[in-house]
Amino acid sequence: FTGIRDIVGGRSGAYEKELRKAREIAFQELGEQAKALGADAVVGIDIDYETVGKDGSMLMVSVSGTAVKTRR
């Protein structure tokens, strides 16, 4: 169904909801990893979306950035 809606230019609420949830998880994990390294912030963040699996049936969200410690 998502594919059909994409063809006609519509939006899939279910697809957008899952994408938003995956993005939130990716950012949360990035923050946790930075904190474990002793960082205060992450800069230069890049977010990528990729379809994987048979016929692009799965969506992968990856987030990367540079963990930094700020001066106070």
Notable characteristics:
about 70 residues, alpha+beta, Translation Initiation Factor IF3, two-stranded antiparallel ribbon, about 40% helix, elongated
What does this structure look like?
The protein is of the alpha+beta class and 72 residues long. The protein has one domain: 2-Layer Sandwich (Translation Initiation Factor IF3), CATH 3.30.110. Helix content is 42%, strand content 32%. The protein has helices at residues 2-7, 13-36; strands at 41-52, 58-68. Strands 1-2 form a two-stranded antiparallel sheet. The N and C termini lie far apart (52 Å).
Secondary structure topology:
Blueprint: H1 2-7, H2 13-36, E1 41-52, E2 58-68
Provide the gyration radius in Å.
16 Å
- Determine the mean pLDDT: 85
Structural class, please?
alpha+beta
Q: How many E-type strands?
A: 2
* Beta-strand residue percentage: 25-35%
Could you give the order of strands across the largest sheet? 1-2
Query: What overall form do the CA principal axes indicate?
Result: elongated
Under CATH at level 1, the class stands as Alpha Beta
Largest sheet: 2 strands, antiparallel
Topology-level CATH name: Translation Initiation Factor IF3
Q: State the separation between the terminal residues, measured CA to CA.
A: 52 Å
Give me the CATH superfamily: Hypothetical protein apc22750. Chain B
Helix tally? 2
What is the H/E order? HHEE
Q: How many domains comprise the coordinates?
A: 1
InterPro entries: UPF0145_dom_sf, UPF0145_YbjQ-like
Protein name: Heavy metal-binding domain-containing protein
Family: Belongs to the UPF0145 family.
Pfam family, one: YbjQ_1
